[in-house]
Amino acid sequence: MLNPYIILTPALLSAMTRQRIYFVRQQWPRGKGLHEDDSVTCFLFTHYVHHEVDTERVQRHMRLLFNDPYRCLYDSQNPEHMEKLRIAAGQPEGYRIYINLMQKKWKAGDVLKRKISAYVASRLSWWKYNPADKLKVTLKERYGGLYLALLWKGQQTEVHLEEIENFRPCVTT
User: Fold this and answer.
1) Angle at 97 between CA 143 and CA 162, to 5 degrees
2) For residue 117, is it left (φ>0), alpha (ψ between -120 and 50) or beta?
3) What are the CA-CA distances from residue 80 to residues 73, 84, 173 (Å)?
4) pLDDT of 21-33, one tens digit each?
């Protein structure tokens, strides 16, 4: 399972909160590394700059997380929230806290590339896609969800990353 995000650190939190920021917390199963035990709980903090458009996005993000018992909204201007954010950035024992920032430019690995090709050939057959052709793939984040934007010969779509990760092509005999 792909986790492109970096760990939230005190230095990063300090740099980010030089301006007013909202943070939406949610469960983040993708944060579990191969060597994490089941007692580690992972969270993703999605940041939004404080202005009217992002305030609406924050509210929508919180509504989309209605089933997440760990969802929480933090405002960097609230001293109690800032104290909780500092604790989270310290990576308390038993927790792994990520922020929706990538350390480097994302690039699909070979296994994911093969799954994408099989997915496009099966689910987007009207594209008449040929794996020898250049398919542009970018990773997008929306409300804490990861999507792959697929662009080929002027055609484009976005697919939830999990849909491609879990894709199993039908085999006919």
Assistant:
1) 45
2) alpha
3) 12, 6, 62
4) 999 999 999 888 7
